[in-house]
């Protein structure tokens, strides 16, 4: 089956810019500043020693029946909200449920809620609710989605760290091409982190410091000389993939490779292999790419190696931006919401700026900075890289 026969028929999204894809694209193009000190319970150390900066979204809309909503955590309710938006736009009520699949990108998704549960039930263990017997599995979000909507083909989750959302899109496209289903939903789930996770990420040197604590809007600086790490941002997105061509555009090619790293170390060789393989599957050269949605976390080593990779792959002619400068780093959801943002920019005929890109690491690359840039995307490259050497690239095409 030709690569062009998989297209995006529906999108649902949520992040600190608000609920829905309209809030996402409007906030991105405006370059809105939504960074602040994280306030959700469990995100700051109880002794007051931390002041982690990032982006948090409003509470999810009430979609589930109250008796079900009481058993669903924050991330699960967010997943239902974005799935509902994408499902309705794609008109999936008219599709045979046995021909619909679901892949949820993300693993170890609810550490904050587990931490809060430990604190709540530590002195009354006999009163732990029965739901704790299954909600700690990542498959709980899968089951909630499939029990709420008519998904009866296949459904599972996968983990590829920060590349999870992009890998979910890649696997969903492959499932359609293989004929397993006619429709497959790729959902990047909320990585609901706790202060323990944030402390660990800071200890790794991956997360930004507190030097901008009094000016949170300046803290996230992908590809800028003055960067010092990523900033967490709650995010969630769902993309409905179908056979045919049209909609928001097509998944023309994709690849995920492993570069042999265990931890956070980026690898230019692995990144280049993923990009080359994705372009080969799409049947095009780097010269055909006119827009790159970068991974762009703001980590010094990560940004430097990614910029060098894009340059070495011959992508100097393409416009480049980094959504994490506006939404923060959604971890498991990052790849999915950035694929969604790429298609929404395609539809809008405009590219969002990269905030705080005052002094680019590589001034020879074609950065979108300062404000939104009018541009009609024809072929886009989305790259997404995760801990443990998960290097992913997707080639996206505009609709006919």
Give a verbal description of the structure.
The chain has 400 residues and is of the alpha/beta class. The protein is 31% helix and 20% strand. It contains 11 helices and 17 strands. It has a 6-stranded mixed beta sheet with strand order 2-1-9-7-5-6, sandwiched between helices. The chain has a 6-stranded mixed beta sheet with strand order 10-17-16-11-12-14, sandwiched between helices. A 3-stranded mixed beta sheet has the order 3-4-8, with no helix packed on it. Helix 1 crosses helix 11, helix 3 crosses helix 5 and helix 6 crosses helix 11. The longest helix has 17 residues. The radius of gyration is 20 Å and the shape is globular.
Q: Main traits of this protein?
A:
single chain; 400 residues; alpha/beta; six-stranded mixed beta sheet; 11 helices; 31% helix; 20% strand; globular; PKS_Beta-ketoAc_synthase_dom; transferase; Ketoacyl_synth_N; Ketoacyl_synth_C; Ketosynthase family 3 (KS3) domain-containing protein
């Amino acid at each position: 089956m030709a690569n062009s026969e998989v297209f995006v028929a529906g999108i649902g999204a949520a992040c600190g810019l608000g609920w829905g894809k309209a809030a996402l694209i409007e906030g991105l193009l405006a370059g809105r500043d939504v960074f602040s000190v994280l306030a959700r319970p469990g995100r700051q150390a109880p002794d007051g020693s931390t002041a982690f900066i990032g982006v948090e979204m409003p509470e999810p809309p009430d979609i589930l029946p109250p008796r079900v909503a009481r058993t669903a955590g924050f991330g699960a309710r967010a997943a239902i909200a974005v799935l509902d938006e994408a499902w309705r736009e794609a008109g999936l009520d008219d599709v045979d449920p046995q021909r619909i699949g679901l892949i949820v990108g993300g693993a170890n998704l609810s550490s904050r809620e587990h931490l809060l549960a430990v604190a709540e039930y530590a002195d009354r263990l006999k009163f732990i609710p029965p739901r704790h017997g299954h909600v700690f599995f990542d498959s709980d979000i899968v089951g909630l989605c499939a029990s709420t909507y008519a998904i009866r083909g296949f459904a599972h989750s996968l983990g590829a760290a920060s590349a999870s959302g992009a890998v979910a899109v890649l696997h969903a496209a492959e499932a359609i091409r293989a004929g397993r289903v006619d429709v497959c939903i790729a959902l990047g789930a909320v990585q609901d982190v706790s202060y323990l996770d944030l402390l660990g990420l800071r200890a790794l040197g991956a997360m930004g410091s507190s030097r901008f604590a009094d000016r949170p809007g300046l803290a996230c600086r992908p590809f800028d000389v003055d960067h010092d790490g990523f900033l967490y941002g709650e995010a969630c997105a769902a993309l409905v993939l179908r056979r045919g061509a049209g909609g928001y555009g097509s998944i023309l090619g994709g690849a995920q490779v492993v570069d042999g790293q265990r931890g956070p170390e980026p690898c230019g060789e692995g990144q280049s292999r993923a990009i080359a393989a994705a372009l080969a599957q799409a049947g095009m050269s780097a010269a055909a790419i006119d827009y790159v949605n970068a991974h762009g976390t703001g980590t010094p080593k990560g940004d430097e190696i990614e910029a060098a990779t894009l340059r070495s792959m011959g992508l100097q002619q393409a416009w480049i931006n980094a959504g994490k400068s506006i939404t923060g780093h959604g971890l498991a959801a990052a790849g999915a919401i950035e694929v969604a943002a790429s298609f929404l920019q395609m539809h809008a005929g405009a590219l969002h700026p990269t905030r705080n890109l005052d002094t680019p690491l590589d001034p020879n690359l074609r950065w979108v900075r300062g404000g939104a840039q009018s541009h009609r995307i024809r072929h886009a490259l989305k790259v997404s890289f995760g801990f443990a050497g998960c290097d992913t690239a997707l080639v996206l095409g505009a609709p006919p």
